[in-house]
Each structure stands twice: as C-alpha cells, then as structure tokens.
Amino acid sequence: MVYNPTIASITARGLFGRRRVLVLLPLPLLLVGLALLMRANDVPARDWGQPLLVGLGLAVLLPITALIVGTGVLGSEIDDGTVVHILTKPLSRAEILLSKYVVAVGVTVVTAAVPLFVAGYLASGVRLGLGLVAGAALGALAYSALFLLLSLLTSRPVLLGLVYVLVWEGLLGTWVSGTRVFSVEQYVITVTDRLAPTDLLTPNVSLTSSLIMAAIITAGAGVLAVNRLRSLSVAGETS
Amino acid sequence: MTTVDLTSVSRWYGNVVAVNDVSMTLAPGVTGLLGPNGAGKTTVLHMMAGFLAPSKGTVTVDGAPAWRNPSLYRHLGLVSEREAVHTFLTAWEFVLASAKLHRLPDPASAARRALELVEMTDAQDRRIGTYSKGMRQRTRVAAALVHDPQVLLLDEPFNGLDPRQRMHMMTLLHDLGAAGRTILFSSHILEEVEQVSGTVQVIVAGRLAASGDYRSIRRLMTNRPHVFAVQSSDDRRLAVALMGQASVTGVEIDPGTGLTVRAGDYGSFTRALPRIALGEGIRLRRLIPSDESLESVFEYLLEA
C-alpha cells in the first residue's frame, strides 16, 4: 500500500475545482471574526472561550469541514462517474483510498486548524492554539476515515454525516453521556486539554480511551472502506 | 492471444433480470454487441470490465475472474458510455495521468502515441470542459488505449461523433482488431456494427438472441418479408401489377388506407415499384416501410 501522487493531485484539483469548496470558507471566517470581536471588546475569555472554541470550532467547524472534504474526494467522483477512470487502473484499492485520504486529511487540517489556532491564541495564548491544532489533526484523521467510508456505503453521505455530527455528537453527546465514548469530538477535546490545560475545555473521556477509540475508528473505517471499494458496482445509465 | 469468456452468466437487480443465462467467448478481432436500448448490453460490458459481479455464472478474462481483480486492467481498457471526465484537466494531463497510473515506463511518450492515435494532438492542451462530445469521446478512448491493452471494451463508442469522426473511430477499431487485439463495442445501430465487425453478439431482453458471423445473421433478417404501406392514384390496378412481381409475396387492399405490400426482398421491390407505377401510368402518393424499426428486426431475430 503506497501513496499515489497522481491520484492525490487529480483529487485535489477536483476538490478545488468544484464550487462546493467555497462552502468551506464561512465557518473559519466566522470563528476568527467572533474571536476578534470578543477580544476587541475586552470580553473575558471564560465567557466566550467555551461556546466559541468548542461549540463552534470543535463541534461544528472541524467535523463539517471534514465532512465536506471527505465526501468531496470520493463521493462526488462516484456521483459523476469519473471514479471509473481511477478504478480501471491496475492499482490496489488501498492505494487509491490512501491517496484520497491523505488529501482529505491535509485539506481538513489546514482549513480547520488555522482558524482554531487563531481563536485559541486569542482566548488563552499560543499553547492553547497549538493544542487545538494537534486536536484538530487527530480529529481530521478519524473524521476523514469515517466520511470516506460513508461515501462508499451510501449515496447520501453528506446527509448521514450531518446526522452523525449534529444528532449523535451534538444532541446525544450533550444529554446521553454514554454516547460520548463514541464521539470523535470528545477525543479532540480530551487531547487538546491534555496538551494545553485550561478551564475552557471540559474533557469527558480519558486520554487512553480517546486515543484507542480514535485509532480503532480510523483503522476500522479504513479497512471497511477498502473492502467496499473492491466490490464497488458501477451500474449502467440506461440498462 | 486474449479471450473473454462468459459462462452461463445472469445478472439481476432485485426482481429484474437484466442478463439471462448468457454464454459467449470473445476472440481476438472486433466483435459488435448489438441490441436495442435496455437490452442489457451495458450490464454485460460492465461485468466483463469487473464493475459488476455476475449473480450467477462466471466472467473471465484469459482465465482470471474479472470481478474484484484490479490486475485485470493491465490488459484491459474500458470506454464507458457515461460521458464522465475530469473537465478541469486538459486531454494531455488526463491521458498522461492514465499512463502514470498504469505505471508505464515512459508515460509521456505513451500519452503522445495514444493522443495521436485518436487525432487529438492539436487540441490536447485545452481543458476537456471546452471539448465537443466527439472530442471527449476520443480523449477517453486515448486514455483507455494508453497502455496498449489486449482487450478493449467500448460502450456505444459512436454516440455523438460526426460522420468523419465516426469513420475514423471505425478504422481505428478495425485496425486494432486486425492487429490481434480483442475488441468489443456495443451499439444499438445495425449499420455501425455492419461496417466495423464481422462477428456480432445480438442481445435482446437480456438473452443472447444470435451470435456469430454478421452476414449470416443479416441473411436471416433479409429473408423475412418487408412490409410497406403504399398509397397511389389507383390502388387496385397497382395491386394487380405488383402481384406479378416475384419479389412481392402478398398485397392487401384497405379502401381507407391503401395497400399493404409484403415483399421478400427489400432491394428488388423498392427498385421495381417505381418502374411498375411508371409503366401503368399510376401516380404513387405514399411509400412507407412499416416495420423497419430496429425493435421489429430484433423481435424477428428472437423468433428465428
């Protein structure tokens, strides 16, 4: 299994060539804009840090970015049929997926980590900024694997991904504490808080569980996705 | 020598049977896969290309299963019907990327050769999004040919091509077949198949209706009576004169709509009719071949 730069470059060009990529812009701008606004008005960080960094940054910006990118690198190619060009090559399906996964993780980290760093820095300093970057990187690894798999399991990956992010992690994560063990968002909070302890973040899952669960989700989704891509049926248009 | 073998292959989607117990062997040379729209041609092609698992039976390329076997694509090229291309790439980038993904030793020269083969060199640096349908088609053929595959499968390759491009594509397929490649292309147009390949597989409603040399299948088709609707200034007198013709096997008179003429041979009847009308001083008002639709030809084949 190797990374294939040709696939990665076509994938990246495809991703940025679609208008959908513009959807990635508003959330980072909103996060940075609101953080700047708070600082400019001297609002203390303990009043806005939690809702902005966690409520907007980790609960919305990071997973939604990963969702748009993760489904964009594969789901859209399956939708419009261009995936056939890559599938008709004598390449291991793992190589195809890994190359797309690398692009998805890379774009997600850059898009989410930069605004998170800025907001974290404004709230508490460089350390929290860097902690958030590391947390976002871990989150991007798990989310991207999950959403790539979703693109292969369903023809509506964005919808199902939204249900996971908003209903499972958002709603149930708040009210039903048991679901937190299966929530990527919680792992990100735990890892960030361990690297940059502040009273802005409240971890609910232990560091060990977070790391193990993130690894299981990433590897499990990866294995399932490769197997699924091996048996991807491409049906005809007319018959 | 590479062969593609289908052995008792069926494919169904839920309750719908798309392909029903089809067995065929493709040998080197050009084979046409002929059938009306919705007959199951694409399903057959996709099973050969490893994009669909047969529900029953086996599909092999040189003895190796086509399904879940990416190494197949070392020797096989596919041009699907769906006109899906990365519109943001130029033809050169697209074909070069294909060459690289095949891990060819010299991708640039392979891409150049493939683009020359389909006569796309002049436009190769423009984005595919700006191309006409025919140009996109040829670009996709170049990408499928870049690794010089032993087997090439094409789904409706002549769709959207103008007559000159069509001619060029036919020559290209013909030459590839003559060079010992195994070429299969699907079409719902009889004449396309006739011009390119001697061997055809006719598929109707998911079943293999006829298979083999084109000429013998064509003879089956020409042996059946052709039906024409004719209207003239004096239908009854024309009917009498037509019955004297060897090529005419029956005439019906309907006072409302005119004559229904059955002719054994299409060519000699259509040549004889104006001569007879002229000789009898009858004016022809209408001549319509009433069963020329492709479906009726296929139906006939299915009955034969």
From TrEMBL, chain A:
Top-level taxon in the UniProt lineage: Bacteria
Transmembrane portions of the chain: 21-40, 52-75, 96-122, 128-150, 157-176, 205-226
Species this protein is from: Spirilliplanes yamanashiensis
UniProt-recorded name of the protein: ABC-2 type transport system permease protein
Keyword field: Membrane, Transmembrane, Transmembrane helix
TrEMBL record, chain B:
PROSITE patterns membership: ABC_TRANSPORTER_2
Domain annotation ABC transporter: ranges: 4-230
GO molecular function: ATP binding; ATP hydrolysis activity
Alphabetical keyword list: ATP-binding, Nucleotide-binding, Transport
Any Pfam family: ABC_tran
The family this protein is said to belong to: Belongs to the ABC transporter superfamily.
Protein name as it appears in the record: ABC transporter ATP-binding protein
Organism of origin: Spirilliplanes yamanashiensis
